[in-house]
Structures are given as C-alpha cells and as structure tokens.
Amino acid sequence: MSSDLTATDSRDRLAAVLVVLVLAGVYWTTMGGHTTSVDGELYLLDVRSFVHHTTVLSPTPGLNSVVNLAVVNKNGDTTTHAPLGLTLLLLPGFVVGRLASLVFAQEDREEVTRLIFLAANPLITALTGGLLVLLCRALGASLRSAATLAMVFGLCTWAWAHGNSDFSEPATALMMTWASLASVKWWAGPTLRRAAVVGFLAGAVVLTRASTVLFVPIFLIAGLAANRQHTAPGRGRQLVAFMLAGFVPAAVFIANSVIRFGTPFTTGYRKFLFNAPLYEGLFGLFLSPGKGLFWYAPICVVAMFGLRRSYIARRRYAVFVGAVMMVHLAVVARVEFWHGDFAYGPRYLIPMLPILIALIAPIIDTGREWMLGVKVAALVGFVVPGLLGSLMYFNAVYWHNEPHVARDIEVVSPTTTQFFRAWDFQPRSSPLILQIRSLPDLFRNTVDRVVGDEGGITPIPEAYEDRIHWYARAIELDTWWAWWSARDGPAAAYLLLLAPLGAFVVAARILRRLRVVDSCDQTVGASPHDSPSARPLEEHA
Predict the structure, then answer these.
(1) What spatial distance separates the first Cα and last Cα of the chain, rounded to whole Å?
(2) Within 72-118, where are the H helices?
(3) 254 to each of 72, 118, 179, 220, 261, how far by Cα in Å?
C-alpha cells in the first residue's frame, strides 16, 4: 500500500510540473516584455541595489517619475518600499538576465536584462498553478480534475494577463497558495515539522505583503483547532514550533525595516485613507462590470454555487478561506483605491484567487454538473479576460478609449476619478467591453506592422519612464517578440523563444509519461488512492 501511495504522490508532482511548464510556456510567449507601471521600474531598481549590497537606489537617467514614487531611508537617501519577499522572488530573473546579456553587445545588454527580469513574474504565476494542483489533490480532487482547475486558474482568468504585468500580487498569490497547501497537510496529519513549515510560510507571505500579517493568527488557529488525534504532538508543542519557525521571516522583516528606516515595523508606504464605503468596495470587487471578480474569473461563479457542498465536504478549509477573505476584504474594500488604479481586473484579489478556486476541489468529482460548470467557465474565461487580456496592453485599451468613455458619460474633459468611476461601474465602459471594442484596432495595427507600416507607433523614446507610455500609444499585439524590432532589440534575442518551446517539449514528454502510468494502472486495477473518496478526510468538528 505504501508503494501505491508513493506512486500517486509521484504522479501528483509530475502533474504539477506539467502545469508549471505549460503555463510558463504560454506566459513567456505572450508576455509584453516591458514594464507596465512605475511600480515595475521601482522593483527593478530595488533588485539592482540588492545585488550591489545596498538599499539605496541608483536610478538611471530618465526615471524621475520612479524616483518620485520612491521613499527616503533613515539616512535621507532614496530607497524603496517594495516588499523584501518580492525582491527575493524577482532576484533570480535579474541575475539570469544579467548573465545572459553578457553574450550580447554592450548597448543591447540592458534590454536583454530587462526582458528576462520581466519573465520572472510570469514564472511566479506558473509556479502558483503547480502548487494549486497539489492543493486541489490534498483537498480530494482526482489528478485530472486538480490539473484542470490549475489550468483554468492560469489560462481562464485574469491571472494570465496580470501575471504578465510587473505588479507585486502574483508573489503574494504564490506564497499564499504554498502556505495554504502546507496548512491542509498539517490538518490531515499534525506534526511538529508541519506546524513549523506553516509558521515559516505564513511569515513568508507577510514578506510579500505587510497587510497579510493579519492572516497569521488564522493559519495558527486553523492548525490547532480540532487536532484530536491521539498520536499528534500536544497543541502547546505545535504552537511553539509554529512560532519559532515564524520568527525567521519575522526577523528578516524587522531587519529590513531597521536597515532601511531605522524602526522595526515601518514599511515605507504612505498612510492610506480607508475612506471608501464598504458597500462600494465589496460591490466593486465582486460584481462591478469593470473590476468584479465574477467577470474576471468566471470559475469563481462555480465556486460560489458549490460553496455549501464544499463546506460540508471540507469544513475546515471552507472556514479557513472564509476567515482569510473576511480579513482581506476588511482592508482592501475600504482602502481609497480598492480598484487597484491602472491595473487589469480586481488586482488586490489575485492573492486570494487560487484558494478560492480550490474550494471546488472537494466536490468536482461528485457529479457531472461540477465539471460541466468548470468547462463552461473555462471557455468563457479563456477568451475574455484570458486571451484578449494578454494580447492587448491594458493601459493602451484604457487610454485609447478615453474619448469613447468621455462621450458615454457626457463629460467633455473627465477627471481621472470620473474615468475610474466609468471604467469600474458603467458596463459599456468596462475594460472587458473596451477590449472587444478594440479588436478591429488590434487587427488593423498589427497587420500594418507586419506589412511594414508603423501601425500608429512612434519611434521609441530614450527615457525609460517615457517608454512606459509609449507602449500604450496604439492598440496592437502586446507580445515581447512583436515589440522587439520596434525598439531596436538584437535579432539574436529571438533565440529566447526557445525557452517556451523547450517548456512545451518537456511538458509533452511528462504528459506522455503520465498516460503510460495511467494505462498500467488500468491494466492491473486503478489505485484506490487516486480516488477522492480514498483520500483521508479531516474531522468536521
């Protein structure tokens, strides 16, 4: 029996790797390869300074707007409020980019470094998909269903487009999914090691977003509650293991704050106003046509319909997700910019999306209607917001359609606030509708570029802060290889397309291996451990 369990776990890991490779291949093919906000430029500067063993930013010429968003450290020098966890997750992309750029001419190295650095966020989202496979398996889904839910997350929600941006939420989503997976394993078999792992990962989540410190007590209480197994260590010992392991990321957080700002709990962020009406934030985040979760992730509609049955099947997980969501919404639904400013979809719900989708895992194999619902949601979500959101630069869609929005709201010169109100709450001005409106422009401008015309694109500016807006001057195919020649990138860099190609090739080999193993299982009799009903269920109490 133990060998069967080992084989099943091996298939789980293979399926997780398969999902990571497929998503990474798609993302690296469709990524824009340019920063989408001054946030991204700031993160890049922070990683550069980290590599040079300093917290002081050394901006290159033409990044004045980024410096204006930076903060001052305890010595009066320019530093950043970027979360340290995000810096550490983006660091490998910068290091690989710097090393790869050495084979190019000196004048091309910066562009190559940036391109590979910006490939880190897509990989982070792909890794989140792999962890989601394991989380869904731990919650009782069959291997095929778990992989399906992970692929829906990665390709049939706005996570696809958002993962190709330079925002920080994908990093939080990765760590949150990882910590949730570790928690489910802790609940199923309480040990000191598992308690310590959850404590460490819960602290690591905080390193990517300071407000998630409010989640730490939820991780702890969920792990200690109802652990009545006689062989389990005492709750006191598990508490100590959780706290000691959690002290490590806490110490890193405090050290970073002291080094930068001189005090242990300062993040550098300005004080935000929590003045948005709660009903506005909640409606906006879930139902508004411009930022509503159910429009940008149709799979969450299935999760809502299955919430009661999911609660019955996996009570502790459902309560855990509910508690985390309540705490998270108490913060983000009240903050003045709950909509996430110029971003695609409900930006601040990205960290919650994987664990929300995992609510379907306990019930997806209990009836045909659930898989049918998942497939319908996947079909809708793949087209909009998935594919269209990835092929078009969202800021280009926003800005190119400003005259249409102004006419729709009957205002000659709308303010930024008026534009946000229209984008968020007026159906015909929703970014999703604007993307559909923009399809003719996408086709026309892309064809113009293919045949040699400029397609509305002016010569690329020298200053990088101006380049952020340059990419939004016309709606056309927003992939790095489509932009590369327009910004005079070296032709040899097209060889980087071998990375997604290699990911697809390896994924195909893994898929073939999984099918061979499944065929062998069917010949000798299916392993009972692949069935959701055979997996150990936690106590409902």
Answers:
(1) 28
(2) 84-101, 109-117
(3) 17, 28, 21, 21, 10
The length of the chain is: 541
Angle, alpha carbons 352-358-364 (nearest 5°): 150
* pLDDT tens for each residue of 52-79: 888 888 765 556 666 656 788 888 888 8
Task: For CA atoms 435, 438, 443, 445, give the dihedral sign.
Answer: negative
DSSP sequence for 209-266: -GGGGGGHHHHHHHHHTT---TTSPPHHHHHHHHHHHHHHHHHHHHHHHHHHHSSTT-
- Contact present, 475 and 397 (Cβ < 8 Å): yes
Q: By 3-state DSSP, what share of the chain in percent is helix, strand and coil, each rounded to 5?
A: 70, 0, 30
CA–chain centroid gap for 494, Å, is: 26
Tokens (6 digits) for 123: 């990989």
Instruction: Name 525's Cβ contacts closer than 8 Å, sequence gap at least 6.
Output: none
pTM: 0.93
Tell me which DSSP letter residue 298 carries: T
How many other C-beta atoms lie within 10 A of the C-beta of residue 495? Answer: 10
At CA 148, angle to CA 142 and CA 152, rounded to 5? 145
